[in-house]
């Protein structure tokens, strides 16, 4: 299987990108298909952010438009980046309240799933919650921790990001299970799967999260659930790097998935 090679667009001096009609149509199809899945499934903080961003339905949003709303709400902005960036650059951007956005959109062939995060994943999946102070503060703290961490520690920190920002679920007492992870919110298939009876769901435990392996190319066998978006403030106050050290000593849990085939 050959991977599709995506090339990010370069914004002009004003930060705007001239997307093609075809690219804008892809955005429209992705947006219309997924936005209908959000009510009752996405957490209220996400839906409030989606309303606040008021992003275009029929064309790819321009980053300065997103920045205006984010900066007014939480002091964040976006940063146009290539398809893939280093861990170091990723942490540096978050530490400076800049959310990396790869400025390309997936092809029709990879409509349902692609490994590289595209602009639909970043803008539709993540940016609405960056209007929420708890989510924004957690993301900022995470960037600062990662910037100061060693290469070995960053591997453990990646799991914290994966099971919160990317694939986190939330459930308040006596309330329905809902989604706040951008990796789920930008995927119609995973939106339905994550809330079904198929995966295992566990209450958030920092040490367990740091010790849980994951694969990026499958539906997640395990999701971790927090009780509210505000709980991200509590996680930010935990001794995360102390827990990373403990996780390094204890080692990883057994994976709940098969090893990735080398033939793929």
UniProtKB/TrEMBL annotation:
PROSITE patterns per UniProt: BH4_AAA_HYDROXYL_1, BH4_AAA_HYDROXYL_2
Lineage: superkingdom: Bacteria
Cofactor: Fe(2+)
EC number: 1.14.16.1
UniProt cross-references to Pfam families, sorted A to Z: Biopterin_H
Catalyzed chemical reaction(s): (6R)-L-erythro-5,6,7,8-tetrahydrobiopterin + L-phenylalanine + O2 = (4aS,6R)-4a-hydroxy-L-erythro-5,6,7,8-tetrahydrobiopterin + L-tyrosine
Biopterin-dependent aromatic amino acid hydroxylase family profile domain location: 1-264
Keywords for the protein's UniProt record, in alphabetical order: Iron, Metal-binding, Monooxygenase, Oxidoreductase, Phenylalanine catabolism
The keyword Chaperone belongs to this UniProt entry's keyword annotation: no
Pathway terms, separated by semicolons: Amino-acid degradation; L-phenylalanine degradation; acetoacetate and fumarate from L-phenylalanine: step 1/6
Gene Ontology MF terms in the entry: phenylalanine 4-monooxygenase activity
Family: Belongs to the biopterin-dependent aromatic amino acid hydroxylase family.
NCBIfam families: Phe4hydrox_mono (TIGR01267), PRK11913.1-2 (NF008877)
Name of protein: Phenylalanine-4-hydroxylase
Source species of the chain: Shewanella metallivivens
């Amino acid at each position: 299987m050959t991977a599709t090679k995506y090339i990010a667009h370069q914004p002009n001096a004003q930060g705007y990108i001239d997307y093609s009609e075809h690219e804008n149509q892809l955005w429209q199809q992705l947006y219309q298909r997924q936005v209908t899945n959000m009510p009752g499934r996405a957490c209220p903080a996400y839906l409030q952010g989606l309303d606040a961003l008021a992003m275009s339905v029929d064309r790819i949003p321009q980053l300065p438009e997103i920045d205006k709303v984010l900066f007014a709400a939480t002091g964040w902005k976006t940063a146009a980046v290539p398809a893939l960036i280093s861990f170091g650059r990723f942490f540096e951007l978050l530490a400076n309240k800049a959310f990396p956005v790869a400025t390309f959109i997936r092809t029709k062939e990879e409509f349902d799933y692609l490994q590289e995060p595209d602009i639909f994943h970043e803008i539709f999946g993540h940016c609405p919650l960056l209007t929420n102070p708890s989510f924004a503060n957690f993301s900022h703290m995470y960037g600062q921790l990662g910037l100061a961490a060693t290469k070995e520690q960053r591997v453990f920190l990646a799991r914290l990001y994966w099971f919160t920002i990317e694939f986190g679920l939330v459930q308040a007492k006596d309330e329905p299970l809902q989604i706040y992870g951008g990796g789920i919110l930008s995927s119609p298939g995973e939106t339905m799967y994550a809330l079904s009876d198929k995966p295992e769901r566990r209450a958030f435990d920092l040490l367990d999260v740091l010790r849980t392996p994951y694969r990026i190319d499958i539906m997640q066998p395990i999701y971790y659930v927090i009780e509210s978006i505000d709980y991200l403030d509590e996680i930010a106050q935990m001794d995360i790097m102390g827990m990373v050290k403990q996780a390094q000593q204890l080692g990883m849990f057994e994976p709940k998935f098969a090893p990735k085939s080398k033939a793929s």
